[in-house]
Amino acid sequence: MDDLETRELRYFVAVAEELHFARAAERLGIAQPPLSRAIRQLERRLGVRLFDRDRRGAALTDAGRVLLREARVALDTVAAAAHRTRRAGDLKRPLVLVTKAGASYELLQRLLDTCASEPGAPPIEVLLCEVGEQAGLLRDGRADVAIMHRPFDDLAGFDTEDLCVEGQVALLPAGHPLASRSQLTLAEVRDVPDLPMARWPRLDGSYPDGPGPEVHTQSQLAQLVALGKTLLVIPASSRSWQWPAHVAVPVVDAPEVTTVVAWPSSSRSPAVASLVRSAAGLRSTALLAPAD
Question: Any idea where the HTH lysR-type domain is (predicted)?
């Protein structure tokens, strides 16, 4: 069997994500007939059916779900190779560190200051992203290193260096009765009829079931909390983006969160290695946001 082509994989992923050939063709900027022919040809070459088709659209088969997972990885790898090759040719390029907007400012600043004090240290460009986006930016080569959180972030395929371990807090509207408590439990914050917990997307993009609003960005979340529409449980140091209309209360039985520096396992960059050494030196003295 011939090797799969990146064009074929892009076509397949578009159909798999849209589950509709016409919408996928529009997204790709091509006509629908050649897209349909390309998918049929791909199915013939693989010897499996990738989609169940009907008048309303398409649904992935078990084989199609496997290929979707593998195709995304393959396309990310190809994109990363292009990004890293271009950037390797720029000897003056900065090291790109991606972090969730709203993560601990104090910890990030100490890491940047420590790196800058190293002789010959490269400049560091900080790329801010939304929750859960760091992994994709590392995998496609747009970032060299990331600050991430275990167990929430996708760390598959990355090496990591632990920075600090901390507890979690419930972020509440300032006027809510629970905001006056000195501490809470997970059971208490999960059972607030007038204040359902916000729902972030899972690693596969789906949302957990529940009455709380689906949130995509931290700014959206901050507004909903301030309006008394939701609450959430977050690492204590993430309170750096807390508004005056918010109150943070420690959740005593919430799982601890480990902040890590992560980088692709395949990286051989001396600049990344230097940053990781600086991060290791911060581990025992990392500043944490107070939990009360």
Answer: 4-61
